[in-house]
Amino acid sequence: MTMDYFTTAMVCGVLIGVLCGLVGVLVVLRRRAFFTVALTHATFPGGVLAAILGVNVVLGAGVMGLALMALMVWLSRIHRQGSQVAAGVVLSLGYALGMLLLSLNPWLPVKVDSFLAGHILAIPVSNVVIIAVVLGVTVLAYVAYGKELLFSTFDRRGFVASGHRESSADVVALGLITLTVVAVMPAIGSILAIAMIAAPAASARLLTKRVGRMLVIACLLGAVAAVGGLVISRYLGFAAGGAIAIAATLVFLISLAIRTIRSRSVASSGGARGRVSAIPAPPVEVTAR
């Protein structure tokens, strides 16, 4: 049975939402948001180069993403250079290289916005399958290595002291982030991918402190943002990739509002209890017999 274009986009959106939710929690907890932004830009020239060579865009983006990820890791280990500096250098390099390749090949039948914002409404089934495979790999990674990832995230010194190698956890985390960015690029673009990776996970972190619940909530919010963005795009005529990114941002703002209201409610109830306890007890009357 063949699905129509919108049904295919909806299935793709749900898969992207769940995948970005799982990986986004790693990004948020390990503070790799800027690294992910740089990586989204790093896949851009790979996609353009793949179009020039006539090969699959995902393949080109993956190879370029892995190469620039290795460059970021190497730069971050240079004395007095941190990961933020490395990510900033690669971010600029990736975007500039992509624009350079496009300017040198004006005959390409693809437009810049197809790389930057994606084309989820025209996504082929083969790309949906790739996203599903990456989602499966991510789930398996959590099952097989999830405890180690969380251990290294919250206590790096303890992780190393217990006999583990910190680089192994970094490789797994960065590998999952790279696979996710590469897989979702054809659907939601290399630039807008960061919205789906960061916003649902950041929203989940506002709503709960438990990692297990955080993963579930991030996946649900990611799927809601993707489906909501597609519905908005269809009925209001917005660009699908941009609508999904806006929906993800709205999800974050709503979560922030819920967190703020909840915090004020707890603070006010705590203050009321404090005021009641501060009221002096009535004097004890001693009646003489």
Explain this structure.
This protein is an all-alpha fold and 289 residues long. It is built from eleven helices and no strands. Helix 1 (5-29) runs antiparallel to helix 8 (166-188). The model is unreliable at 281-289 (pLDDT under 50).
* Whole-number count of domains: 1
The level-1 CATH class? Mainly Alpha
- SSE series: HHHHHHHHHHH
What structural class do the secondary elements suggest?
mainly alpha
Average residue-wise pLDDT: 84
Shape: globular
- Taking pLDDT < 50 over at least 5 consecutive residues as the criterion, the unreliable ranges are 281-289
What distance separates the N and C termini? 96 Å
The helical percent reads over 70%
What count of helical segments does DSSP give? 11
The CATH homologous superfamily corresponds to: ABC transporter involved in vitamin B12 uptake, BtuC
- Please provide the count of β strands: 0
Main sheet summary: none
What is the CATH topology assignment? ABC transporter involved in vitamin B12 uptake, BtuC
